[in-house]
Structure formats: C-alpha cells, structure tokens
Specification:
It is built from 12 helices and 16 strands. By secondary structure, the protein is α/β, with parallel strands linked by helices. The relative contact order is 0.21. The structure holds flavin-adenine dinucleotide.
C-alpha cells in the first residue's frame, strides 16, 4: 500500500516524490517511457550527455530553486549563447551589439538605437495586426527579415502575416556586447546530464518504467491513497470535452566521427529554406573533448494524438478548454494534477520545480 501513486517520472513527479519521502510517505512512481526524467532525460552516447527531447538549459532567478537543485547535481558554468545562421551568415543572439555590428557595421549603442528607430519609424506601423507587423514595429525590417521571420514561420507552420501579434510581446534587444541569452541570476547544466539528477531525487523510491497508467489504471490506483498525475489532463478525462492542442517536434540525431561540428551547443537556422529550426551539438553543453560528436536537428511539426506533446498551444481557445478540464479536475478529490501536461502550461524547469515544491507544501 502506498500513500501516493505518482504518474510520470519527469521533474514534477520526481520532486514531489522526493518531498513526500522526506515526510515519511511511501510513493510508487510509474512512467510509460522506459526511462526516468521525462523530457529532461539525457542519455550517454560515447561519453556525451545527449538531450533526447530537445536542448535543456537550466536557468532561474529563484534562489530557493537554485539551492534546491544543488543537492542533486553539480552544475557547470554553461551560459546559453546561441548563434543564428541565416543562409550561412552568422549573427549573435539574443540581438545585441555584436548582432547590430554584423548587420549594419555600427559600433556604438547610440548608432544601433538610431538604426532601429529609423527602421521602426519607416514601417509606419501603429497598430500591429499580425506577428510580422508586431516584430517590425519592435526591431525594424532588417532584424525581422533575417532573424525572426523564417524561424517563426517554421516554428508555427504558418506565415508570419497569418499569425496573431500577441505571440511576440517583446523582442529582447540588448545594447551591450553580451551574448548571454538569459537574464537570470543562475544558469548551468548538471555535469553528466539531467538523468543522474532525477535519479538522485528518486533514490529509495519505488519506480516502475514502461507502465502506462491508462492501461493499468484500476490495479495501480487501488495500491495508493492518492494519485499525482503529470500526464495529459484531457486524456485523463478521456477527451470528454474535446482535445487540447500542442505543437510537435521531430528530432534527428546523428553520431559523427569528428570532434567539433559547429563550434557551439545551439545554432538557430533563421532562414525559411532550411527545414529545421536548430542544430544542437550536445558536447558543448559540457565543454566536451570526446573524439566524436552527437548532433540533433530539430523540426517543428504538426502534433497529432499519440505523438509526444511538446509545447501547449496556450491561445484563448485552448486555455478556455483547459479551464473546463480544470473544473473537472477540482472535483477529483484524491487526484492532484501537476506539471506541464497536467496543468497544460509551458513550464520551464525552474517553474516546474517551484510548482512541485508548492504542491508538496500544500498537500503533505
Ligand atoms: C523542446 C523543449 C526544450 C525545453 N528547453 C528547456 C530549457 O532549456 N530550459 C528549461 O528550463 N525548460 C525547458 N523545457 C521545459 C522542460 O522540459 C519542462 O519544464 C519539464 O520537463 C516539465 O516536467 P514535467 O514533469 O512537468 O513533464 P514531463 O517531463 O513531460 O514528464 C511527464 C512524464 O509523465 C509521463 N506520462 C505521461 N502520461 C503517462 C501515462 N499515461 N502513464 C505513465 N506515464 C505517463 C511521461 O512519459 C513523462 O515522462 C523545454 C521543453 C521542451 C519541449
């Protein structure tokens, strides 16, 4: 008999299970995948930690969360500095003085600002009606055309003129020579990958892998007082109110017999013609010196039920459907819904840890 059945061995499930064990509760964690870690799972290939479900960089300004993860892993000093490749032209990201210097030859912040202002004014857009207009009204035509348009159209599978303006609220522009992508206080990658970190969280807890909750629902739920469910909330209710939508992704991973393929962990392909949005070279997350390298091409995809749901489509239509599922969820007194699928929310890792810790405080 268990106090908690935890469906999902991802970050939410692992943090909740760890906290429950600390409080003397007995937990059974099940996951339908053959491994722990959920989407932050990393797998060792030729000594390289490969991020199987997309590049994961830990970053947070929440000191409590940063201190919390230190007990499970040692973090390196990795700083995310993606590079943009537009038809072979290389630009620094996020948009900063290196980007502006390459784009226009400007050297001072003053010159860069006036170049952007000039292009924004020339666009004469006052009330942006779509994503293209919104982006041009924020950063001007040159940056939009080379660094935003193609990438965004691939990401969403639609023309920028057909996408709503609200998708881009801000386009961070930095008038310093600083390639650090994130503004957070803390940043890094757990040395050796994320799987070891989640493994430590789950130490001493019963874990069963390759177990689908929906195929074993009754026999699993009778073993525990309560369930923590981190799978898809609409699937839990058998899609009775309709299907929530996601954006899918396809990953193509290759082991290459060379030391250094692209010189950076993340290269974004910002032209429309290159079919993938980015290439990840995993060893650079840990400053690897292995003789081989592993790269992954990332292709955004239309999502269909049965495939891995990556990004929730948090538009009005889907958010209001989720609210109706949440009402159903509130009536399930013995089930707690958590994580990115259980709460249909784009959560970064630090958000999901914070949410799991709050959930543990509330329920344990
Ligand atoms: C491509 C991509 C890149 C990202 N990059 C970053 C980043 O750089 N930095 C960052 O902070 N965050 C990043 N994130 C977000 C990060 O992945 C999430 O915050 C985190 O993984 C969420 O954890 P979770 O436990 O909620 O969900 P998950 O990791 O999805 O775990 C849920 C688990 O439940 C299991 N499950 C579902 N249904 C069932 C069932 N019926 N039976 C049994 N098991 C089930 C699943 O197999 C899964 O293992 C990224 C996300 C994506 C998609």
């Amino acid at each position: 008999m268990y106090d908690y059945l935890i469906v999902g061995a991802g970050l939410f499930g692992a943090v909740f299970a760890h906290e429950a064990k600390k409080k003397g509760k007995k937990c059974l964690v099940v996951d339908k995948r053959p491994h722990i870690g959920g989407n932050i799972y990393t797998e060792n290939v030729e000594g390289i930690a490969v991020h199987r479900y997309g590049a994961h960089i830990f970053h947070t300004s929440n000191k409590e969360v940063w201190d919390y993860v230190q007990q499970f892993a040692e973090f390196n000093r990795y700083t995310n500095s993606p590079v943009a490749n537009f038809h072979g032209e290389i630009y620094s990201m996020p948009f900063n003085m290196y980007t502006f210097n390459k784009m226009w030859g400007v050297v001072t912040p003053e010159e860069a600002k006036s170049k952007i202002d000039e292009q924004v004014k020339a666009s004469k857009i006052n009330n942006p009606e779509n994503l293209e207009e919104q982006a041009i009204s924020l950063v001007g035509k040159d940056i939009y055309e080379k660094l935003v348009k193609g990438y965004t159209e691939k990401q969403w599978g639609r023309k920028a003129t057909e996408l709503p303006a609200f998708i881009i609220k801000r386009l961070p522009v930095r008038f310093t020579y600083d390639n650090n992508y994130f503004n957070d206080t803390y940043q890094g990658i757990p040395i050796g990958g994320y799987t070891g970190m989640v493994g430590k969280m789950l130490e001493g807890i019963d874990v069963q892998l390759g177990v689908d909750f929906f195929k074993n629902r009754e026999e699993l739920q009778v073993q525990a007082q309560k369930t923590v469910f981190t799978g898809m909330i609409d699937e839990y209710f058998d899609y009775s109110l309709g299907e929530l939508e996601y954006r899918g992704l396809k990953f193509e991973t290759e082991l290459l017999d060379e030391k250094n393929y692209q010189g950076n962990a993340v290269v974004n392909y910002t032209d429309y013609e290159t079919p993938y949005t980015r290439i990840i070279e995993h060893k650079h997350f840990e400053f690897g010196t292995q003789p081989k390298t592993v790269i992954t091409r990332e292709y955004p995809q239309k999502w269909v039920r049965g495939e891995e749901p990556y990004y929730p489509m948090n538009d009005d239509k889907n958010n209001s459907l989720y609210e109706r599922y949440r009402e159903l969820a509130n009536r399930e007194t013995d089930v707690i819904f958590g994580g990115r699928l259980g709460q249909y929310k784009y959560y970064d890792m630090d958000d999901v840890i914070e949410a799991a810790l709050n959930c543990a405080k509330e329920h344990l």
